[in-house]
Amino acid sequence: MAIVGENAIEEQGRTDVERAPAADDRADTYRIALAQTAPALGVVDANHHDHLEKIAAARAARADLVVFPELSLTGYFLRDMVPDVAMAADAPQLGELASAAKGAAVVAGFVEESPRHRFYNSACYLENGVIAHVHRKVYLPTYGLFDESRYFAAGERIEAFDTTRFGRVGLLVCEDFWHLSAAAIMQAEQVDLLICVANSPARGVSGDQIDTAATYKRLCRTYAELIGCVVVMVNRVGYEDGLCFWGGSLVVGSDGEIHGEAPLLDESLTIVEFNAADLRRQRLTTPLGRDEQLLLTIEELNRIKRDRYRD
């Protein structure tokens, strides 16, 4: 496992009066560990052990947040293995990851089994030794090489949550990030940090560039600027079911600039720094969130809904 350079970056700090951090908080520098892994398909114990090792390495590098990819505890093309690898949202394995992180926060991907025995492609945010938030993937790709809706139930909420260290955070899973509606909700939620975990295979090559990697990079930069937040995207690597996962995890500041990237194709742990004051500065310069007319948006969406579904 490589620990890749310590690149300068930015983040956090809200201009809203009710959430505004103290001046000392805005001066804080935070460190994000992009844990770009190649999980073993369906082998939860081995993947769990790998998570513990990478969390320990990230803590040794003074990381404040460790982010793993989508379905990092199970691998992606599970198909009929889904019920076998599923766990409840309060499973002991997740609690162990939270405890191992100690003062850091962790994002990990897993198959969640609900009390009614529905299975979700979920990601959890672990902080202060507990499971603070679980997001169930809403948009399940079922086209081309993807067949998720056959095995998973779709999530029904896209909501942000408050954290101890990073302000208000949004968490999306892969295909969610490709839907403008999810980004609009995250802007309305006034997130400081937007995290996307992904299992994106390489599709399309233009010279030495992977087309899906280029698209993700554009989305990250666009959302960072329009929402006015820091964006973290972590994608897996390795091969599964004959497909290559390209990695290329990155952190984008609220000005749309890329401040830290993990390598393409290689398993790695990349440490990226950001300062809270940078997000505050960008929001003062370009206050798009402040000027957004949320009530107008709601009214127009209700009008469209009435027109579209009129008998």
Write the layout of secondary structure elements.
Layout: E1 2-7, H1 23-26, E2 29-36, H2 44-60, E3 65-67, H3 82-85, H4 92-101, E4 105-113, E5 119-127, E6 130-136, E7 161-162, E8 168-173, H5 180-188, E9 193-198, E10 205-206, E11 209-210, H6 211-228, E12 230-235, E13 237-240, E14 243-246, E15 250-252, E16 258-261, E17 268-275, H7 276-285, H8 288-291, H9 294-308
Parallel strand pairs: 1-17, 2-3, 3-4, 8-9, 9-12
Antiparallel strand pairs: 2-17, 4-5, 5-6, 7-8, 10-11, 12-15, 13-14, 15-16
**Contiguous uncertain segments of 5+ residues:** 6-27
**So what's the overall shape?**
globular
Radius of gyration based on Cα positions: 19 Å
Provide a count of the helices: 9
Structural class: alpha/beta
Provide the residue-averaged pLDDT.
Answer: 91
Compute the number of strand runs.
17
Beta-strand share of residues = 25-35%
Question: In angstroms, what separates the terminal alpha carbons?
Answer: 59 Å
Order of strands side by side in the largest beta sheet?
Answer: 1-17-2-3-4-5-6
Helix content: 25-40%
Q: Major beta sheet, specifics?
A: 7 strands, mixed
Helix-strand string: EHEHEHHEEEEEHEEEHEEEEEEHHH
What does it look like?
The chain is an alpha/beta fold and 311 residues long. Helix content is 29%, strand content 29%. It has a seven-stranded mixed beta sheet with strand order 1-17-2-3-4-5-6. It has a six-stranded mixed beta sheet with strand order 7-8-9-12-15-16, covered by helices on one side. It has a two-stranded antiparallel sheet with strand order 10-11. Strand 5 and strand 6 form a beta hairpin. Helix 2 (44-60) packs parallel to helix 4 and helix 5 (180-188) runs parallel beside helix 6. The longest helix has 18 residues, at 211-228. The relative contact order is 0.19. The model is unreliable at 6-27 (pLDDT under 50).
